Amino acid sequence: MTQQLPRLSTGVPGLDPILGGGFVEGASYIVQGQPGAGKTILGNQVAFATASSGRKVLYVTLLAETHDRLFQSLSTLSFFDKAQLGSRISYVSVFQTLNKEGLGAVVDLLRKETKRQGASLIVFDGLLNARDRAETDLDVKTFVAEVQSQAAFVGCTVMFLTSARTHDDSPEHTMVDGVIEMHEELVGLRTVRRLRVRKSRGSASLGGFHQYEIAEPGISVFPRIEAALRLPSVSDQPDLTPLTSGIEGLDVLTGGGLPRGSTTLVVGPSGSGKTSFGINFLAAGSHKEPGLHFGFYESPDRLLSKASALGLDLRRAVDKGELEILWHPLTENLIDKLAYRLLDAVAARGVKRLFIDSLGGFERAAVHGSRMVEFFAALTNELRARGVTTVATWELRDLFSSQVSAPGPEISSALDNLILMRQVEIGAHYKRLLSVLKVRDQSYAAAPQEVIIDGHGLAISGPFEEAVGISTGLARPLGASSS
Amino acid sequence: MNIVVAEDEFLIADMLVVSLEEAGHRVRDAPHGAGALRLIQEERPDLLITDFMMPLMTGLELAEALRADDGLRDIPIVLVSGAQGLIARERSDLFDIVIDKPYRIERILEALARLIAKPID
């Protein structure tokens, strides 16, 4: 029978799941990364979280920087609590002890101090300095081994923070139970921070890189959702009754509405009515089926004005709590952070109608385009399992194009239903057109439909007049001569 | 004056020792409270300047040990501390002067001048 080891929560959002549930109590970890990667912030954040759970922490430094300078920079982070200093967290410098008496004396001091304080966690900041002092690698190995075995003896967890580039086969790595690597690197023009657990004894960790950010609350890690939500977090309970699309005339074409829990992709060029489609969809929400607008383009105010110009009052729905509008401008975003914001907002209000405008916003935030298939699959599986009916947009590049391009595999693998919207030039007029190209598990009418704005948002007025070349946007009535 | 400094952070300890020596004092220092207590027992200094958070024995514990010892109880104690100034000020039975970190070295020298001018009885 497998056994769960007792855990010490790191208190760092997102880090516990990556470690398979937190640190193993009494185990030792190396946290390594270049200066500036955030090791000291991580060490202190874990220290304060441990202290605020009522346990004692020993923060041992070998740094040249004074503790007051450290407190000064930590005081800009919200987890820092001055009241814990000297009561639950003791900061001690062993620099002088190391210089005057050597590593053996430091080991001895740590043993006495751990016992004296009754510490549950030791953070040892500056292992590189210990290596400088050691005549050979063997000394640091002995040091790490002794510190961790005496800590394990009293059930105390140890974090060794180091800027040294230790290798897989370095003696320290073979000694400790886990290694966390923190990186800060440039991708194109932007800085990307990511972290990975290289070794994790006694736990199934989430492998690979995970992005993190350093902000006022400290470090937050965003486990890649395709790894964290390999399977949906809840079990799928399919409800087969369709959900009304909110667009007059569309439900009859799609077999009664949109299948509940499905993802509908509305593709079309700019100006074809995709956002209006979503506004209609959200306007059909209620307190039983709360809505969420997750957008990258319009600010909430602009979106509400747009809705009222269409003749739909979303402001009332917002005021009554039936609709939430979350706006993430297309500036620098972290793709997984966006996904968690979305899923958290869905879970918080039990959202049933979700409009994402557009999926391209996630793609733009991605540092590695090659993961989009898995990313969208994990996201839509989770939404489906939570019973959320999703409408998402995808922009086609050309207003008019002789080639009708299908969305790429990154998108099409995740969608259930596909709707194409276009402006079509016919005769001397522009008309709006909507075609249902696919509805999963429901029969649908595939003929192109004309779309009008009738004072209550979008509506379908009937089949588009018979013409050729409709899907390119440049149509000719049937029977007209081609010049 | 003979002074013992108890301070685990070497930058601060170094600076204190150098400045006090320049001001004409004789100074010994220890990286933690336990080392300082041994020094005090050997040296019988005129003054102790101590940090609060230190390994093996905190400044508070060191002060308590001095006050409990008939031979050492009269040594004036200056506490220099970042976060524990409040705790320390409630213990005027232990500390003669409490100085908050970060501080300028002049503050320590001024404090010493005051202690010398007004001997503790």
Task: Give me some keywords for this one.
heterodimer; A: 483 residues; alpha/beta; Rossmann fold; 2 domains; nine-stranded mixed β-sheet; 16 helices; 22 strands; 27% strand; elongated; B: 121 residues; five-stranded parallel β-sheet
CATH class bucket of chain B? Alpha Beta
What is the CA-CA span between the terminal residues of chain A? 78 Å
Q: Residue-averaged pLDDT of chain A, rounded? A: 88
Largest sheet of chain A, described in full?
Answer: 9 strands, mixed
List the helices and strands and how they pair.
The complex is a heterodimer of chains A (483) and B (121).
Chain A: E1 7-8, H1 15-18, E2 23-24, E3 28-33, H2 39-52, E4 56-61, H3 67-74, E5 89-93, H4 95-101, H5 103-117, E6 119-125, H6 127-133, H7 137-153, E7 157-162, H8 171-175, E8 178-187, E9 190-200, E10 210-215, E11 218-222, H9 225-228, E12 263-269, H10 274-283, E13 291-295, H11 300-309, H12 314-319, E14 323-327, H13 335-349, E15 353-357, H14 360-365, H15 372-385, E16 389-396, H16 409-412, E17 417-426, E18 429-438, E19 449-453, E20 458-463, E21 467-468, E22 476-477
Parallel strand pairs in A: 3-7, 3-8, 4-5, 4-6, 6-7, 12-16, 12-17, 13-14, 13-15, 15-16
Antiparallel strand pairs in A: 1-2, 8-9, 9-10, 10-11, 17-18, 18-19, 19-20, 21-22
Chain B: E1 2-6, H1 10-22, E2 26-30, H2 33-43, E3 47-51, H3 59-67, E4 77-81, H4 85-89, E5 97-100, H5 105-117
Parallel strand pairs in B: 1-2, 1-3, 3-4, 4-5
Helix pairs in contact in B: 2-3
Molecular structure report:
The complex is a heterodimer of chains A (483) and B (121). Chain A is α/β, with parallel strands linked by helices and 483 residues long. Chain A folds into 2 domains: 7-223, Rossmann fold, CATH 3.40.50; 251-477, P-loop containing nucleotide triphosphate hydrolases (Rossmann fold). In chain A, 30% of the residues lie in helices and 27% in strands. Chain A is built from 16 helices and 22 strands. Chain A has helices spanning 15-18, 39-52, 67-74, 95-101, 103-117, 127-133, 137-153, 171-175, 225-228, 274-283, 300-309, 314-319, 335-349, 360-365, 372-385, 409-412; strands spanning 7-8, 23-24, 28-33, 56-61, 89-93, 119-125, 157-162, 178-187, 190-200, 210-215, 218-222, 263-269, 291-295, 323-327, 353-357, 389-396, 417-426, 429-438, 449-453, 458-463, 467-468, 476-477. Chain A has a 9-stranded mixed β-sheet with strand order 5-4-6-7-3-8-9-10-11, sandwiched between helices. Chain A has a 9-stranded mixed β-sheet with strand order 14-13-15-16-12-17-18-19-20, with helices on both faces. In chain A, strands 1-2 form a two-stranded antiparallel ribbon. In chain A, helix 5 (103-117) packs parallel to helix 7. The longest helix of chain A is centred in the N-terminal third of the chain and has 17 residues, at 137-153. Chain A is elongated. The mean pLDDT of chain A is 88. Chain B has one domain (2-117): Rossmann fold (3-Layer(aba) Sandwich), CATH 3.40.50.2300. Chain B has helices spanning 10-22, 33-43, 59-67, 85-89, 105-117, and strands at 2-6, 26-30, 47-51, 77-81, 97-100. In chain B, helix 2 packs parallel to helix 3 (59-67). Chain B starts with a strand and ends with a helix. The chains are: A alpha/beta (483), B alpha/beta (121). The interface between A and B is medium-sized, with 23 and 20 residues.
